[in-house]
Amino acid sequence: MKPVVTLVLLANDAHARLFENHGVGKGLTEVDVMAKAVLPDGEIHYSDRPARSASADGTGRHGVEPRTSEHDQMLSAFADNVVAEVGARWNAQGYDRFVMAASPRMLGALRERMPRAIADNLAFDLDKDYLKSTPQELVAQLADHIAF
After folding, report:
1. Which residues lie across from 126 on neighbouring strands?
2. What are residue 97's DSSP bridge partners?
3. Residue 137 belongs to what H/E stretch?
4. Cβ atoms within 10 A of the Cβ of 18, count?
5. Distance CA 46, CA 32 (A)
6. CB under 8 Å to 4, separation ≥6 — which residues?
7. Mean pLDDT throughout 54-79?
8. Which position has the higher pLDDT, 132 or 74?
9. Cα separation of 50 and 71, whole Å?
10. What is the reported pLDDT for 2?
11. Closest CA to 44 of 71, 66, 67, 64
12. Reported pTM
C-alpha cells in the first residue's frame, strides 16, 4: 500500500519552512526555508503618497488615509511568495495532503491565497507559530492532530 505523503508548512510574518512526511513513523524532513528578506526586487509596490478622493458635490478633493501599512504590504508579498512555492512543490511532487501552522495574521493571508487544489487537500491548519521547532518537536506538537 502506498504511504500518504504530506506537505507541511510552518510560517510567520517573516519566515517559512516546508517539511514532507512519507508515512506514519517516518517523521518530518525539511525541504525548504524561505525568508521575506530575500523577496525578489520589485515584488513589493509601495505608494509614495496618500490617495485622493473627489467629494460628491463640487470640486473639492480630500486626502484618504492609507488602508494598509508597510508591514501589511510586506506580509501580503511574502504570503504570495510562500503560496507560489507551496503550489510549485505541490504540483511537482504529487503530495496527498497538506498541513499548515502559522501565526494568526499569516495564517489568514495564506488561507486567502491558497489555490483550490491545495485547499481541498488541507488536513488541518493551526494558528500557532511553530517555526522554531525541530522536526522531532514538531511531530510531538502535532501528534494530537496527525501522525507522522
Report:
1. 101
2. 6
3. helix 135-141
4. 21
5. 28
6. 23, 96, 97
7. 71
8. 132
9. 16
10. 84
11. 71
12. 0.79
Return the H-helix or E-strand segment holding 105.
helix 104-113
Residue 74 has pLDDT above 70, yes or no: yes
Render pLDDT for 8-45 as a digit per residue (tens, 0 to 9).
Answer: 999 999 999 999 999 999 999 999 999 877 555 545 55
| Residues 148, 136: Cα–Cα separation, whole Å | 10
Q: Average pLDDT in the 90-111 region?
A: 95
- 106's CB contacts (< 8 A; 6+ apart) are 11, 12, 13, 75, 79
Q: Which helix (H) or strand (E) holds 31?
A: strand 29-35
Q: What angle do CA 33, 140, 10 make, to 5 degrees?
A: 25
Contact 100, 125 (CB under 8 A): yes
Sorted by sequence, the CB contacts under 8 Å of residue 122 that are 6+ apart come out as 97, 98, 99, 100, 114
Domains and CATH numbers, the chain: 6-141 (3.30.420.60)
